[in-house]
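Progress narrative, Year 2. Work on PTS phosphotransferase system sugar-specific EIIC component from Streptococcus milleri advanced from sequence curation to structure prediction during this period.
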Amino acid sequence: MIQWWQILLLTLYSAYQILDELTINSSAGSPVFAGFITGLVMGDLKTGLFIGGSLQLVVLGVGTFGGASRIDATSGAVLATAFSVATGIKAELAISAIAVPVAALLVYTDVLGRFSTTYFAHRIDAAVEKFDYKGVERNYLLGAIPWGLSRALPVFLALWLGGDAVKAFSDWLANNAQWIADGLILAGKMLPGVGFAILLRYLPVKKNLHYLGLGFAITAMLKVVFDYISTLATASSAVKPIAKALGGAKFEGLPMIGIAIIGFALAALSYQNAINKQVVTVAAEQSESGEIDDDEL
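Result:
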């Protein structure tokens, strides 16, 4: 059962996340952040991060240009996490049966939010002609209301009215159509791969194939190394003299922050090389145009 205060917090977050995406852009409107916040509110951070991370991978290669609308995976992460924790359905099933349909349906509320703000845009135009700067500021801020409602209202209604329906649906699947549930779970596991495929389709992979291969190689090697260390630690813990010498130390796998630092270092190296090439190109063009270089002064 979802408590009233949980519904309130998740509704407020849903209104804020779209405003953050449009203005501050601090990543608070990303699916993985939505999963984190919802998991924190619902008391199951692990499920929230799993669902949010999976949906983040789904939309990893999806972008918008201009005023285009896209699936709202953030709101999908909120509802999928909330219902998964509250009703006990599997996270993979929640992704495919709740998050993806919700994300697709909220495209319409996104369009409605964009359409509604044109009213305030016209009021701003009128205020500009009158040099009414306070009116410009006021209508600019009022324009945030339809944007916030485009996410907050569907999430609120779904959380307030949909709990029993989702529970009944999951019970029906478990008792009468387990094959459908298994298929949806499989689809939920495959969706992150689809996101990766879309991303690789648009990235300049051929030009940076060495970085891609290096990343996979480093990850694979480190995983093997730390798996062996973990196995060794587990085996040695059964031997009392070795366990005593180790002082009860625990061996953990390589955290994701380690892989992230390696990726950041490689990205910084690539960026620096690109900047150096750009500087050399600009210097060469200026030299060919006949301008006086510093060493010729």
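Residues 292-297 have pLDDT under 50 and may be disordered. Residues 204-287 form one domain.
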